[in-house]
Amino acid sequence: MSINLARRALFRRKEQDNVVRLPWLKADLDFTDKCTRCGDCQTACPEQIIILGDGGFPEIDFSVSECSFCKECVNHCKEDLFDLTQTQAWPNKAVVSNSCLNIGSVYCRSCAESCESEALAFNFTTTTFVSPDVVLDDCNGCGACVSSCPVNAITVSANR
């Protein structure tokens, strides 16, 4: 009996590109195969930004608050999903959309004021308002800018 791998792959859960998972996950980890969906990480998160997403798998919701990188999700997880030796908690970065108030000539710096790493740079000229540039080397993907944006113009992309 031959196994049709293409048909089997149809039923395997695939990672969604736009979902931000927990910090410090192992780089080569197939998260949905290893996570037991126990909810311990969600309960442990002091910021309450871990929600149960598609299929009950934990994901980050920056609309509530930012990730403080406290490692409580890591400390309470019973599975071998994390690598704390990584230099960055994750490769996620902020992305500013065209709905930024500054593009509509409304002065706003809410995102930059909430960014501890100063990764959002405004280059205002005397006649033109522009959205902030994300300094990728400085952005740690914490999401502080997301919840502070009054028009939801900022997201954090999962760059795995």
From TrEMBL:
Cofactor: [4Fe-4S] cluster
Stored Gene3D superfamilies: 3.30.70.20
Primary location class: cytoplasm
Compartment(s) where it occurs, according to its Swiss-Prot or TrEMBL record: Cytoplasm
Residues that bind [4Fe-4S] cluster 1: C35, C38, C41, C45
Annotated [4Fe-4S] cluster 2 binding sites: C67, C70, C73, C77
Positions annotated to bind [4Fe-4S] cluster 3: C139, C142, C145, C149
One Gene Ontology MF term: 4 iron, 4 sulfur cluster binding
Signal peptide limits: none
Any single GO CC term annotated in Swiss-Prot or TrEMBL for this entry: cytoplasm
Key words, A-Z: 4Fe-4S, Cytoplasm, Iron, Iron-sulfur, Metal-binding, Repeat
Sequence ranges assigned to domain 4Fe-4S ferredoxin-type in this UniProt record: 25-55, 56-87, 130-159
InterPro entries recorded: 4Fe4S_Fe-S-bd (IPR017896), 4Fe4S_Fe_S_CS (IPR017900), Fe-S_Ferredoxin (IPR050572), NapF (IPR004496)
KW Iron (keyword) present: yes
Subunit structure: Interacts with the cytoplasmic NapA precursor.
Family: Belongs to the NapF family.
Function: Could be involved in the maturation of NapA, the catalytic subunit of the periplasmic nitrate reductase, before its export into the periplasm.
PANTHER family: ADENYLYLSULFATE REDUCTASE, BETA SUBUNIT, FERREDOXIN III
NCBIfam families listed in its UniProt record: napF (TIGR00402)
UniProt name for this protein: Ferredoxin-type protein NapF
